[in-house]
Amino acid sequence: MTLTDPISDMLTRMRNAIVSRHEFVLVPASRTKISIAKILKEEGFIKDYEVLKGNTPQRVIKIHLSYGNKKQPALSGMQRVSKPGLRVYCQKGEIPRVYGGLGIAVISTSQGVMTGQQAWKKGLGGEVLCYVW
Questions:
Q1: Model confidence band, residue 2 (pLDDT cutoffs 50, 70, 90)
Q2: Which one, of 81, 58, 84, lies nearest residue 5 by Cα?
Q3: Which helix (H) or strand (E) holds 33?
Q4: Cβ contacts of residue 61 below 8 Å, gap of 6+?
Q5: Could you read off the pLDDT of 55-77 as tens digits, one per residue?
Q6: Which of 15, 17, 41, 112 is 20 to 30 A removed from 73 (C-alpha atoms)?
Q7: Measuring CA to CA, which residue among 70, 71, 122 is closest to residue 95?
Q8: Of the candidates 81, 77, 79, 82, which has an alpha carbon nearest to the alpha carbon of residue 133?
């Protein structure tokens, strides 16, 4: 099955797993998705992630979701910004803030995938992949 937007598929799988209160979710792997999972772990939105090799040549990312007290998810929302039909770019001075700094913007720069705050500190712009809060 071919996907038009694999990053959007990853976010949707995570969103559906959180609504169903699953402990983990499996996502087909790519370098960009692994970078996004790494950022989500560093920012505390997920517990952990691991890259698994299955019976097929396609690798899989197993993302362990994080819940607080009373089963409240640490990840309350995700929004895909740049899509295959409409790419959204920002320069170093135009990096968006998500919910006044409570969320993060994930940006693909020339030096790799990073948060908006990291890109701002390095003076980089790039493609805005998604917002997470």
A1: low
A2: 84
A3: helix 31-42
A4: 26, 27, 28, 29, 33, 34, 37, 49, 50, 51, 52
A5: 888 999 999 999 998 889 999 99
A6: 112
A7: 122
A8: 77
